Amino acid sequence: MMDAILLTRNAYSLAELSMCPVFRRQWSSIYETTQDTRPQRHKLMGLYSQNIPKPGRIVLAGDHTVWSRPDAPTLKERTYEHYAQGGKGGRPVTPGYGYSTIAWIPETEGSWALPLRHERITSWENPIDKAVWQLKQVYKDLPSRPITLWDSEYGCAPFVMING
Question: What is the CA 157 to chain-centroid distance, rounded?
């Protein structure tokens, strides 16, 4: 499918991508290709961690990001999220999805970062517990204890005790 995306000049639908000669017909539809492709997160995490330089202190940054979806009432598992930019009508709380991200920050200057974990926070999780779980997964593959940077949402005792 990626070859079809790269080689198709103008595709106005997924069905048009399936018409590309390089699209392999292993699935009954192009929609099935996207459903069947799930990257092995733990293997990717290991690969990313192997490429982090060993000397020096590793710096990680974590964040909780909101994807506001107020006009999608049938979207499964929507939660109410605090949205600093203001959701629909400028309201600070919006229905949508929350995502937790941990990224490796390789440079002291610039804005480049490598996301090591980026996962949706489900309706039965909270941002703090999700970040703690993600940190434990990341710590397993790192050669030394990293410095972690977080925003004020994570300045609470449960997070500091587990991360400390």
Answer: 25
What DSSP string runs through 41-91?
A: HHHHHHHHHHTS-SSS--EEEEEEEEEE-TT-TTSTT-EEEE-TT--GGG-
Structure token digits, residue 96: 């949508």
16-27 pLDDT, tens digit per residue, is 777 777 776 655
The Cβ of residue 96 has, within 10 Å, a number of other Cβ atoms equal to 20
Q: Residue 28, SS3?
A: coil
Q: Identify the bridge partners of residue 79 per DSSP, sorted by sequence position.
A: 96
Give CA–CA dist 90/147, Å, rounded.
35
Digit-coded pLDDT (tens) for 118-128:
899 998 999 99
